[in-house]
């Protein structure tokens, strides 16, 4: 029972970590999407207020990549995917940097010309594909861990119930032996 409880706790901790990885992947995609939206808003309007998510995206994206790196541990496939994701994020942010720079220097038409190349969309599609693959892998892992947690909980419940039943039976047997012994002693005293 003790071993099963420990296994359940370990499985639960791993499932929680998988949830955090999934949330971090979602947040990473949201950061880049927000940066795109902010840069587009600036390109279209020229209003620098739109640049806030774009300006914070680089540090947040780097922080999320480092967090994912720490959480993935020894998962070789996920680490390979993360190794592909990091440069894609840097490329997308660099393309946004170029668009914003062109808007500041050459105006909206120059910036729009840079975005019409479709390279940013292609990189963003690659980012989404890598994140989706990583999320699918983590979701599969989460399903496995949840199943293991349920098995461990069932095993623990069974072992505790079995232990309780065994303790009750042993207690009754002990009481029976003690009462027989007392009865024999009383009979011996009476004789």
Q: Into which percent range does the helicity of residues fall?
A: over 70%
Reading the helices and strands in chain order gives: HHHHH
Determine the structural class based on helices, strands and strand pairing: mainly alpha
Whole-angstrom Rg: 31 Å
Low-confidence stretches: none
Total strand segments: 0
Would you mind describing this structure in some detail?
The chain is mostly helical and 191 residues long. The chain has helices at residues 2-45, 52-72, 76-106, 108-115, 119-190. Helix 1 (2-45) runs antiparallel to helix 2, helix 2 (52-72) packs antiparallel against helix 3 (76-106) and helix 3 runs antiparallel to helix 5.
Question: Topology, please?
Answer:
Elements: H1 2-45, H2 52-72, H3 76-106, H4 108-115, H5 119-190
Features:
single chain, 191 residues, mainly alpha, 5 helices
Question: What's this entry about, in short?
Answer:
It is built from five helices and no strands. The protein is an all-alpha fold.
